[in-house]
Write a structure and sequence with these properties.
Urease, subunit C, domain 1, TIM Barrel, 14 helices, 16 strands, 22% strand, globular
Length: 428
């Protein structure tokens, strides 16, 4: 047994906040009681319990990230399921949902089983999406029913937009029948000359055409219309433009099946970061203007954007050292996500700590129907313990990769423990 004493509990599911002691038995939470009331009860069990005094640190549900790339199979020189899980645990995450743009793609049960089986060996909960289309080709749908039955929690061709409107309609219908969401990368490739860099001040600085905001807006507008008509769950990934935020806001008034995510980099940075950091701030969709960043924050504040996800996208140092137009897009994010949420959203008054934790645990868990995001007696013993006032410097990643524009920065929010299934999987 494990007894966590003197922690400040935040449970977004019940709205509970306050000092509590938490007794863990096996992989479940056995008892939650007022501060100081648990020690005598814990001592009564055979062998007693390991006791950890949290000294007032915050205790929250283990974080849930429903948009990560662990590059396994096929690109394990960038990351693999084991190293990605270690990075997740260090960032306070106990559940992650992997994207399926691997090699081979997760479009059959053999690859799906490989990912799930390897994930079970990591110490955290590793779930995965399967592909919408075979081989990420955008032409033929996968066997969604069979993939769902074998453990796929959702469907996506993330990184490759679905440009065929008719195919998307069919996919939404079949995914809805499986009670699984479809998550979409919303950028029209026909409008993009140089991906990863906003068509604006950043592209002008580098003398390239870049990626215009219309590439996102047009796809979001089309796909929201289709999802409303089909009454199927649609998940807009990594929203980056103020126009797209407003489109989601209006679509939510028509349908309860519309969901959206924001990444920490899109609510923390603008295209100025690409000018400063080069390829380390190149990503799809690109960092936009300050008005877009503020619109994303407002979307998080008013509930238009349901959740925060990292789009953790590891690449090798050699790849990111290529010229800007040749280097791959994406940054790692699991180890800095909570700190950026505290710094940019809580400390600046946009969200309460409970609201932030809800968007990083309960909301994503609900979308993917995961037993996570709550702290309740009998519930999963998946927790993160952190000091919101403590500071740390970003360096020495647990990920294989180090492609982050935040390296060297000092941030608030020191994670002390990540506990998954009642086991300590990260200890500072």
């Amino acid at each position: 047994m494990l007894l966590l004493e003197n922690g400040y509990l935040i449970d977004p599911a019940s709205g509970t906040e306050g000092y509590r002691d938490i007794l863990i038995d096996g992989d479940r939470i056995f008892r939650i009681m007022p501060q100081g009331a648990m020690r005598s009860e814990a001592a009564g069990y055979a062998g007693g319990a390991e006791i950890i005094d949290l000294n007032g640190q915050y205790v929250a549900p283990g974080l849930v990230d429903v948009h990560v790339h662990f590059r396994d199979p096929g690109f394990t020189y960038k990351e693999d399921i084991c190293t990605g899980a270690r990075a997740a645990a260090r960032g306070g995450f106990t559940s992650v949902v992997l994207m399926a743009n691997t090699r081979p793609a997760v479009d059959d049960t053999e690859t799906l089983r490989y990912v799930i089986d390897k994930g079970r060996k990591t110490g955290i909960h590793v779930y995965t999406c399967a592909n919408v289309t075979k081989g990420l080709g955008g032409k033929e749908l996968t066997d969604m029913e069979t993939l769902s039955t074998h453990g796929a929690v959702g469907f996506t061709d993330d990184g490759i937009p679905l440009t065929d409107e008719g195919l998307l309609r069919k996919a939404l219908r079949r995914a809805a029948a499986c009670h699984r969401p479809i998550s979409l990368h919303e950028e029209d490739p026909a409008l993009i000359t140089n991906n990863g860099v906003n068509a604006g001040r950043a592209s002008e600085y580098f003398g390239i055409v870049g990626s215009p905001r219309e590439a996102e807006i047009s796809m979001v507008e089309r796909d929201l219309r289709i999802a409303v008509e089909e009454e199927a769950d649609l998940f807009i990934q990594h929203i980056s433009t103020r126009e797209a935020v407003e489109l989601v806001r209006q679509a939510k008034k028509k349908s309860a099946h519309i969901f959206a995510e924001a990444t920490p980099h899109h609510f923390s940075l603008t295209e100025e970061a690409v000018i400063e950091h080069g390829t380390l701030a190149k990503m799809n969709p690109p960092l936009r203007e300050e008005a877009d960043r503020l619109a994303v924050i407002e979307g998080l504040r008013d509930g238009t954007i349901d959740m925060i996800a990292t789009d953790h996208a590891p690449h090798s140092a050699e790849e990111k050292a290529r010229p800007l137009t040749e280097a791959p897009s994406g940054i790692i994010g699991l180890e800095t996500s909570l700190s950026l949420g505290i710094r940019e959203l809580v400390n600046k008054g946009y969200l309460s700590m409970a609201e932030l934790i809800g968007k990083m645990s309960l909301a994503p868990a609900k979308l993917y129907r995961l037993d996570a995001g709550h702290l309740t007696e009998g519930g999963p013993a998946d927790l993160v313990v952190f000091d919101p006032q403590g500071e740390w410097t970003v360096r020495d990643f647990a990920s294989k990769a180090a492609n982050s524009p935040f390296t060297g920065e000092t941030m608030p929010g020191v994670i002390a423990y990540t506990i998954c299934g009642g086991r300590i999987v990260y200890r500072r």
